[in-house]
Amino acid sequence: MPSGKALYFKNDPAMDRFITDLMAKMTLDEKIGQLNLPSSGDFVTGEAKNSDIGKKVEEGKVGGLFNIKGVAKIRDIQKVAVEKSRLKIPMIFGMDVVHGYETTFPIPLGLASSWDMNLIEQSAKIAAQEATADGICWTFSPMVDVSRDPRWGRVAEGSGEDVYLGSQIAKAMVHGYQGNSLADKNTMMSCVKHYALYGAVEAGRDYNTVDMGRLRMYNDYLPTYKAAVDAGVGSVMASFNEVDGIPATANRWLQTEVLRNQWGFGGFVVTDFTGINEIVNHGLGDLQHVSALALKAGIDMDMVGEGFLTTLKKSLNEGKITQADIDQAVRRILEAKYRLGLFSDPYKYCDLNRPKTEVYNQQNRSVARSIASQSVVLMKNANEVLPLKQTGTVAVIGPLGDNPENMPGTWSVAARHKEAISLLKGLKETMGDKVNFVYAKGSNFEYDAELESRSAMFGKNSYRDTRPVAEIIKEALEVAKKADVIVAALGEASEMSGECSSRSDISVPQSQKDLLVELKKLGKPIVLVLFTGRPLVLNQEKEIADAILNVWFPGSEAGYAISDVLFGKVNPSGKLPMTFPRSVGQVPLYYNYKSTGRPEKDEDKFEKFKSVYLDIPNSPLYPFGYGLSYTTFNYSDISLSSSKLQGNQTLKASVTLTNTGKYDGAEVVQLYIRDLVGSITRPIKELKGFQKIMLKVGESKTVTFDITPESLKFYNSDLKYDWESGDFEIKIGGNSNDLKTATINWTK
User: Fold this and answer.
1) What are phi and psi of 732, to 5 degrees?
2) Cβ(407)–Cβ(556) below 8 Å
3) Residues 120, 124, 125, 130, Cα dihedral to 10°
């Protein structure tokens, strides 16, 4: 992997001279124009110069555009910039390439379930190849917001609840997008988002308030953004929420003191969509005032709102900002364009031939299929109902059984939704005439048509059936009676999670629950293929279904990938990156909580005057890191190189992992550490390492983790990042609950 910041932000005297010379020629209006990032508007190829955006580009009032798709359109508008504008400064073109471009991979929460950094980096690399072939050189990804609240719909876009896993994924995504050099034509600039703390919005409601202390910020939420910065991410996007009472977009402590002065970030900061304008609603002043606040906080580029474009000149004349404030932001934007090679070749990403062979090709789709199958989490498999036998009749029942548009999941803006492989199509094409498949929809996504319409946005059809409910279910039962096994394709529609898709009830919708209850009465084995963008409450489903296969939203090749797992071509190896609660009333629920002064002795048993609920156990339905396989694995006790260590020694902690089942398979071996005594309270365990190990039937392998004091560090009450002498528990196992434990003493 490249060496992060040193690679992307190395000292470049030639760049400095070029930009200094260019800025000396720029008028104030042209400088402010570089800070303006409007959306593309709607024009067809050949009409760019006559569009409203085209006129602004020609006048030097636009620094970049986003959400314009198609290399011919992008070439047209770039031509206006470099041939019609006075200084011929090229533009930067961005898009939400979040989990693939036209070839889509599983939603990010699904990708995180692979716990495989090589696969995750490869997905970003392919996304960059396809997007750059189609003219895009900047992606608003990765989203690294740690979240412990599945009510928040945007957990689908992130990597879950854990800061260590999230940090590893942040680095892998940045490396995948940016490669070894931004000068390469098939790499693109990454933008980490949403900085900062957005995953902790109150009540899990999008755009809402965040309020937390500095210790929690530094230990549990900020490290994922820092990991992206350390990996050399080229840009950062400010979040919508407030931090310490000041919206992130106007928060100088966040954007300058932490990001630049503490972490050494060398790129530029962009707002989220109308982020500056929204500071007015937060109550900090009018558009002119908040635009000045944002610029002085460290914001360099204004997305859509045009607060910079329309007010900065006035603020400068009134002495509310300085020329140096404007010049600093302009320089950062121009540096990004220089590093991308746009001054050398403005049409670098505008080769009209590249999309013909590099976008949505069979090679990329094959990789997407493989990655999707490795992101699936097997959550239950009673009586080894899976893998399915390649004979007989299988009934596919449910609103997600034959719905291609919903397969790519949320934030798949460039996907070919209608060409995505539905579950039914994938099963039929992979099995041919070996298995007879029958299908019925069985239910709508929701009983409430209005509620369902909110989750059928962006052209993702729900194909609502307007017949009476009894008639729809009766049809499904008649179809299911013909089958040897029922595959129930249930869960969320793809836009029931994502931006502005918060849910107060995180259950499978009642319409689908009722269908499942009726199917159970047939007495046939039921495999629940669960589509979701978040952890769901699955108590009833866990009781009814014989097997639960959580496929998230698998992407372009969904049906093929699910079939590969259902029929055993791929042995599932995914592990949950978020805890699944028993009840929404447990939220926020996460594995690395702190002990109270009255901890429960057994999280599954009630004990009065302990930190427990009256009505349910404290324990989750499925813990962080959980995931079954078609085979079984045995963990030996932990072997330590030493039980007493000092200073910068390295501890080797090992277990022997054995495949004790009937199938070859992969297991994610997870390392957790508990700091037993600290100067501040510490979590009951923290993920500090993991390895994905492939074993053949009967094979054993010794898995060793090298642990140094770096793994013991945390931010103390002085916000100093350090470790402390004392006793530590070393825990290794297959999920955050089922762990072998050994104790050590480590002194400075």
Assistant:
1) -135, 135
2) yes
3) 140
Tokens of 561: 């990938």
Rounded average pLDDT over 164-181: 97
Q: Residues 629, 572: contact at Cβ < 8 Å?
A: yes
pLDDT tens, position by position, 521-569: 999 999 999 999 999 999 999 999 999 999 999 999 999 999 999 999 9
Strands 302-303 and 36-37 come out as parallel
User: Does residue 716 contact residue 679 with C-beta atoms inside 8 Å?
Assistant: yes
Q: What distances in angstroms separate CA 675 from CA 640, 685, 711, 738, one per listed residue?
A: 17, 8, 10, 18
45 has pLDDT over 80: no
> Over 1-49, what HEC string results?
CCCCHHHHCCCCHHHHHHHHHHHHHCCHHHHHHHCEECECCCCCCCCHH
Q: How many CA atoms lie within 13 A of 140 on its CB side?
A: 23
For helices 117-133 and 362-373, angle between their N-to-C axes, nearest 10 degrees: 150
Can 272 be counted among the known catalytic residues?
yes
pLDDT of residue 40: 79
To the nearest whole number, what is the mean pLDDT of the chain? 96
Which tokens sit at 81? 């910039």
Type of residue at 98: V
What percent of the chain stands above pLDDT 70? 98
CA distance 182 to 744: 45
Identified catalytic residue from 96, 162, 272, 564: 272
Compute the distance between CA of residue 55 and CA of residue 168 in angstroms, rounded to an integer.
43
